[in-house]
Design a protein that fits this description.
The complex is a heterotetramer, with two copies of chain A (305 residues) and two copies of chain B (264 residues). With 305 residues, chain A is of the alpha/beta class. Chain A has one domain: Alpha-Beta Barrel (TIM Barrel). In chain A, 33% of the residues lie in helices and 20% in strands. In chain A, helix 3 links the parallel strand 7 and strand 8. In chain A, helix 5 packs parallel to helix 6. Chain A is globular and about 50 Å long. Chain A starts with 5 loop residues before the first strand and ends in a 17-residue tail after the last helix. In chain B, helix 5 runs parallel beside helix 6. Chain B folds into two domains: 90 residues, Beta Barrel (Elongation Factor Tu (Ef-tu), domain 3), CATH 2.40.30.10; 113 residues, Rossmann fold (3-Layer(aba) Sandwich). In chain B, the strands form three sheets. Chain B has a seven-stranded antiparallel beta sheet. Classes of the chains: A alpha/beta (305), B alpha/beta (264). Chains A and C meet through strand 11, strand 13, helix 7 and helix 8 of A and strand 11, strand 13, helix 7 and helix 8 of C. The complex binds flavin-adenine dinucleotide (FAD) (2 copies), flavin mononucleotide (2 copies) and FE2/S2 (inorganic) cluster (2 copies). The site of one flavin mononucleotide has 26 residues of chain C, from loops. The site of one FE2/S2 (inorganic) cluster has 13 residues of chain D, from loops.
């Protein structure tokens, strides 16, 4: 038997596998196909204070070993979420992480204040959505804004606050340090890379929003590098995301320094990806003689050091 | 809530039948899908590319546990699928989506354009099973590009074939043929028009149905990823109950929508 | 017949297909397998003032739809290049672009001064190598340094100076604007994305240098986005690089705004990639009824504008 | 200088022969490669993964235009190659690299470890063709993992099989067997030791050859991309003429190097 429980700061997870935001809805559809209580947790679709219609279609473009999406934070708004979705999520027997995005510091603060009163386990601040013009990625590309946003948000809630960072920056380490200074409880790496796909016949972008966020195995090397880089710079727990398709990928992120991992695009190709990957992780650990998944964390031995 | 409803099926290709240079019918051994699929639903097929490919269900042979899919080659993914050989295996998600609503209908007119005739063939099959009177209109560019004509003719109901090129029953689009049909057709209560095909054709069909005060259901296409409602990439613009427009998911809220709510 | 000639600033190329730096050597090996006079030009392997041994092996890691390399600018140094390689390159009947990398502004300047006296057609400033500690990518991540470096280099040579930028930045547009202000004659987008691959059994990075540069189709959406983004911001000719594997990819870069394109990793999979891709481009153009490849340039019509 | 020397070949698999659970010999229809390949050279094979896979040439049947490759499954790429069936096609670059130098040799001792016995078999084949006296040492973990024993035995020369497990001629590594051989072997001028296998084994073989004052050539392995010398990723550390160490390209400067220059 392999022990799977992990800690992300003060939050105990029964295992390190979380469903990433935006690729699992609010768990309702996925619950038809697998027992969600087997997961470590679910990150909700990104929420905004008010409902958002999202971007015009098409919203997806296939790329080599990946995809671009330009959903643009379509969501029913925080109120409807709290009323219609959270009770269901809460019943599934795994941790509930709420992914929030705001236009402004005020909006982030208001959402966190309201979430403080709810039975969610953690708040994942989306500082990284490449598909909306305002807030989000702009804030997430500026160390000072990251620090100040998190500091203010932390005044509003005692829930663990996770900062989900964008890879579209010159120095991910600087952003992570800023999040640490601001008081984040964990850092989630990475959101999507900003990309473009063109229909060469029509000479139009394939996506209705022109650009979109690149996800899937194509970005795994970038994500893994950022996790390893940040793990050498900050003392916070890290959550690794980006192109994880199987148990081996997931373990690589633990080795690079992640305490937990999130599965995004893989769930779109295979609805049971999260539970499958957890099984693969424990099988690999067993074959490796590793009795506790947490043992992998941060065991990467760099060359020449 | 925590049932293990199997959604992913590893299925074997039973046979492959080439209809013309661009179109192939694949028959899959997929008893669970055959047992539960409803017309208008689709499957999401693995291929060598990153994303799956959504393909409507053309027919099921429930007793044999077989599912037929009509595939029109438009790019690399459909080319690869059309080249599958008996014995090949592929991963299939399905049946997916919200199909045509046949409950309470006494008569159905299916209006298909191009590869839209595939999923409507399944409608015809089910209408026969349920004793619903069904007529069919099929439109093509030309007789050379026409598909499933024998199959539709074999249904034994009134069937009109239209071709833009003028080399079939009616010269013109499927909507032109529908108009001709509706002119001569004695009205029957609980008649509905169900349509699938190119968007402009469906829009014309919906307008015509409206003129004749017939309810109309349309099957929309949108680029998809998950096919099961979790990623929100397959947004279709619809008019909500309150008159405002919003996005619904083609994959689970559709692909079949009431023509009335579609924002063309 | 399709016209293929293009202009990159003052430099006329017989066609828009260039061999990218680092994946074509100095053309010697490649000349065995194809007629190099069919190419628009060849970018030399990155050169430094003095010879460099490069990084310890392994220097390559396969990734999904791509690869990481950590060659680290192994090269014989400028002198040996000028003596032993340039004469051969010059004889091949296509443009010769020399890719140069320096530790410091002084080194870049000295190399450009010396190249000014040679029959090379253009100098490609490598401001973007992720595999060396000093200079290069550090300079290339800082708009002020880019501007000042190019301004100084331009004093040393009348050759066209191309600035090859790194994608590992928050705003590629700002870097391109800096290059324009400095006086660059063209901008080359993009070099590799910094990534990491881990051997999950040994818990070691696969690359001897730990991290490496991600290239290949995996990065194409990022490269295409950067070309389109920069083409809206600067007036300089752009050269697109990143994941081009076939003629359709190449034309997409022209549509996005590139005047010419470079083929990198594709040449490693298929030695004749450059000439094959040129043929595919003209065949596609012919099928499209396009009589001049230059017609594609910048014809991307964005949605909603 | 602008010849169109064909380097990429689309070849068909003629046959596939499984040696044991981990090893397969693939026979490819590749007349141009068969015609020109020299022992120690390799080919770079396409597979479903992004990069090609370098595999040494095990033998050629020049008249039939066939090339044999011995493949040991260590990961996904070699697994896929080992599963190729007759009729399958693959893209092959080759013959590549700088093989063993046999010119002027009167006697050759090949020392192979594990899958290193594959490319050395080609050396034996060519020695026979050229009338060079050749002896062979093959080392394995155990008799179960041993490969090509019949083929080597069939060469008709003195052949020693070693196994760590002690269940073959000599108990121990290939280097132990080589030592035994060298002890009893009357010296012949122009004798060379050619070795291929795990690095520590080759290092031991090279040390032994040095002790016996025999020139030694070793075949190195390094991760590769192009295989043709343009990308510099396959760096091997060697001692240059001036005594300094530097990197050479495994793919074109090697894979075979004089043991003397290798920095172990
Ligand atoms: C609900 C639904 C039912 C369908 N039923 C059928 C059917 O019965 N028979 C049939 O031949 N085709 C059907 N299609 C269309 C079919 O999915 C596309 O032709 C196919 O995805 C194209 O893939 P490709 O790789 O050949 O083309 P490419 O253009 O290379 O595909 C690139 C990407 O765009 C997507 N894409 C391209 N065209 C479409 C499209 N029209 N709709 C959705 N995604 C697209 C692909 O899935 C892929 O992700 C249906 C589509 C939907 C949404
Ligand atoms: C010149 C040369 C000759 C070779 N000859 C033979 C032979 O005759 N028979 C044989 O079975 N094997 C041979 N090999 C080793 C063979 O290339 C590797 O076993 C193979 O590349 C592994 O691929 P994989 O996908 O199965 O493994 P993976 O580990 O999944 O491969 C991942 C990546 O690492 C590379 N890689 C992994 N191991 C090696 C290795 N040992 N050498 C080089 N690259 C590696 C792969 O090519 C790929 O790029 C040779 C290697 C070289 C360099
Ligand atoms: C369709 C889609 C929607 C997404 N929506 C969100 C979101 O609402 N909030 C968020 O923080 N990340 C969102 N993401 C990013 C993912 O959570 C994840 O960070 C990213 O896709 C990289 O991981 P992956 O390669 O495993 O998908 C979305 C990704 C996809 C593909
Ligand atoms: C093995 C290798 C070596 C490279 N060396 C250089 C170099 O010396 N100088 C440089 O500017 N870019 C170098 N590059 C980057 C390429 O020129 C190119 O910008 C990048 O690989 C993206 O294009 P691609 O996806 O077509 O390979 C190298 C790339 C590879 C794969
Ligand atoms: S395709 Fe994912 S929600 Fe419809
Ligand atoms: S593999 Fe490219 S130089 Fe050797």
């Amino acid at each position: 038997m392999v022990t799977t429980a992990v800690q992300v700061g003060s939050l105990s997870l029964k295992n390190p596998v979380l469903a990433a935001s935006g690729t699992f809805g609010f768990g309702r559809e996925m619950a038809q196909y697998q027992d969600l209580s087997r997961l470590g947790g679910i990150c909700s679709k990104g929420l905004t204070l008010r409902p958002r219609a999202g971007n015009p279609p098409p919203r997806v473009a296939e790329t080599s070993c990946g995809m671009l999406n330009s959903v643009g934070l379509q969501n029913p708004g925080l109120d409807v979420f709290l009323r219609d979705e959270l009770p269901f999520m809460r019943q599934q027997g795994c941790a509930v992480i709420v992914n929030v995005a705001g236009h402004s510091t005020d909006e982030y603060c208001e959402m966190c204040r309201r979430l403080d009163q709810t039975p969610v386990d953690a708040i994942e601040l989306n500082l990284s959505c490449p598909n909306v013009r305002e807030g989000c990625m702009l804030i997430g590309s500026d160390a000072r804004q990251i620090e100040s946003l998190i500091r203010q948000v932390k005044q509003e809630t005692r829930k663990p606050v996770w900062a989900k960072l964008t890879p579209n920056v010159t120095s991910i380490g600087d952003m992570a340090l800023a999040a640490q200074r601001g008081g984040a409880d964990a850092i989630v790496l990475i959101n999507t890379l900003l990309g473009l796909a063109i229909d060469y016949r029509t000479r139009r972008p394939i996506l209705g929003n022109n650009t979109g966020g690149l996800s899937g195995p194509a970005i795994k090397p970038v994500a893994l590098r950022m996790v390893a880089e940040v793990s050498q710079m900050v003392d916070l727990p890290l959550i690794g995301v980006g192109g994880i398709m199987n148990g081996q990928d997931a373990i690589e992120f633990l080795i690079a320094g992640a305490s937990a991992i999130e599965i995004g695009t893989a769930s779109l190709i295979r609805p049971t990806a999260c539970t499958d990957i957890l099984e693969e992780m424990t099988a690999l650990a067993q074959a490796d003689g590793v009795t506790d998944l947490a043992e992998y964390r941060g065991t990467l031995r760099l060359w020449g050091y | 809530m925590t049932c293990d409803h199997p959604i992913e099926h590893l299925v074997t290709v039973r046979s492959s039948r080439r209809l013309n240079s661009q179109t192939t019918v694949l028959t899959l051994e997929a008893p669970l899908i055959a047992a539960t699929a409803a017309p208008g639903q689709f499957v999401n097929l693995s291929c060598d590319h990153f994303l799956r490919r959504p393909i409507g269900i053309m027919a099921v042979l429930r007793h044999e546990g077989l599912v037929e899919l009509g595939i029109r080659v438009v790019g690399d993914g459909t080319r690869e699928l059309a080249q599958k050989r008996p014995g090949d295996q592929l991963s299939v998600l399905g049946p997916l989506g919200h199909g045509f609503r046949l409950e309470g209908l006494q008569r159905v007119i299916t209006v298909g354009g191009g590869s839209g005739v595939f999923p409507l063939f399944f409608v015809q099959q089910v209408c026969r099973e349920r004793g619903i009177d069904a007529l069919a209109v099929c439109g093509y560019r030309s007789i050379d590009e026409s598909i499933l004509r024998d199959e539709y003719a074999g249904l034994g109901c009134q069937t009109l074939f239209a071709a833009d090129a003028g080399d079939l029953d009616v010269a013109g689009h499927a909507a032109d043929a529908l108009k001709q049909l509706l002119c001569q057709l004695p009205p029957v209560p609980q008649t509905a028009v169900l349509t699938c095909g190119p968007r402009p054709m469906m829009q014309a069909v919906a307008a015509l149905a409206r003129d004749y005060q017939l309810p109309c259901q349309v099957s929309l296409e949108e680029r998809m990823a998950c096919g099961i409602g979790v990623c929100l990439v397959c947004a279709c613009q619809v008019r909500e109950a309150d008159g405002a427009t919003g996005y619904q998911r083609c994959c689970v809220d559709g692909p079949v929508f009431d023509a009335e709510v579609v924002v063309w």
